[in-house]
Design brief:
The chain is an all-alpha fold. The chain is built from twelve helices and no strands. It has helices spanning 19-47, 50-55, 57-73, 83-101, 105-113, 115-121, 126-154, 163-191, 194-210, 223-230, 233-245, 255-276.
Length: 282
């Protein structure tokens, strides 16, 4: 039992919680706070799904035109896989990248509307605000993945329909979307302007995509591009998807390493973004 300075005794139930119990309580609430933000995004998506329909056009063009043409040319060595099978996981990863890399513009809009100020003064930890936004991108990415699976099946891609593989594909898609959307939020925290953000986003997307194993194997790259590909998170997402999504597909680096790297990137970028998140309103 604690006492005040005038020696009046306080009952135990009004004693303030210890710092350790406060931290543990916050950790327990963190998943619920993140999911609340994901639910808000789901409601917006359900009311207006046109963004998903528009974003489905680009991967469809890549698979229908680029994939079919290069599968006829047989110009890219893809081992035991035909080119369309090799390319489909890369286009799924590309779709996730292009969706997530522009996600930060949403928080700039929220800043301009005054919503971000209210969120930042709420008791919700900034880690929850960042993860909630990033996981919302994962929700959209899963819808994209479903579309690409259907299109790939129609094009004759040899998909792996085993339920465990499908579940892990979903996890890898969400991890990739979370990583790149968090990176996008970091850019938004730094530039704070929609015009600058769009310019930087457009500059980053193509180098990230082409400096990966999405549409050609790392083995045929020049040495400097191989070095870039090995530090590009998209490379490990594509590698994991190729092993899980395609019958007869294999991981070059090992599925465990692919997922570990994606988790590590998400953790690192989330920590950085949580530190910078307050810059949006300064």
């Amino acid at each position: 039992m604690k006492t005040l300075q005038n020696n009046i005794a306080l009952p135990a139930w009004v004693e303030p919680p210890s710092e350790s119990s406060w931290k543990s309580s916050n950790l327990l609430r963190l998943p619920g706070q993140c999911l609340a933000l994901v639910e808000i995004e789901f409601l917006k998506l359900r009311r207006d799904p046109t963004d998903l329909i528009a974003r489905a056009v680009q991967p469809a063009l890549w698979l229908l035109i680029f994939g079919n043409v290069f599968s006829k040319l047989r110009a890219v060595p893809t081992g035991d896989l035909n080119y369309l099978d090799f390319m489909a996981p890369g286009i799924l990863a590309q779709s996730v990248l292009f969706l997530a890399i522009f996600y930060g513009i949403g928080v700039i809009w929220e800043r301009d509307l005054g919503i971000m100020h209210k969120l930042l003064v709420s008791p919700t930890p900034r880690v929850a605000l960042v993860l909630g936004k990033a996981l919302s991108a994962g929700l959209r990415a899963l819808a994209q993945a479903a579309f690409i699976y259907v299109l790939s099946w129609l094009l004759g891609v040899h998909l792996n329909w085993h339920v465990p593989a499908l579940l892990v594909v979903g996890i890898v898609v969400v991890l990739g979307a979370t990583a790149f959307s968090t990176f996008s939020l970091i850019i938004a925290c730094i530039v704070k302007s929609r015009e600058r953000f769009m310019g930087i986003g457009q500059v980053l997307t193509m180098p990230l995509f082409f400096a990966s194993n999405a549409i050609y194997p790392i083995a045929i790259m020049p040495p400097w591009l191989k070095a870039v590909a090995h530090v590009n998170p998209l490379t490990y997402q594509v590698d994991a998807l190729r092993a899980l999504m395609i019958r007869g597909g294999a991981s070059q680096f090992g599925l465990g390493l692919d997922i570990a790297i994606l988790v590590g990137v998400v953790a690192l970028l989330t920590a950085v973004c949580a530190k910078l998140y307050g810059n949006l309103v300064r």
